[in-house]
Known about the structure:
- By secondary structure, the chain is mainly α.
- The chain has one domain (4-72).
- Helices cover 66% and strands 0% of the residues.
- The chain has three helices and no strands.
- The radius of gyration is 19 Å and the shape is elongated.
Amino acid sequence: xxxxxxxxxxxxxxxxxxxxxxxxxxxxxxxxxxxxxxxxxxxxxxxxxxxxxxxxxxxxxxxxxxxxxxxxx
Length: 73
């Protein structure tokens, strides 16, 4: 019975990480890196220094503004 509590907590943690990663534009499979010790630190390092798939809000606003000015030109 006592093994179920940590397993459930770990599954909830994986689900939360997967949700965060999918909102950031990354594959939720990256959450599986939490299974192997020290691999999450390497995964966080990779995610932190790669270009994110979802554009920055400022970049998106600039692109939208360019489209608007191009339409009226």
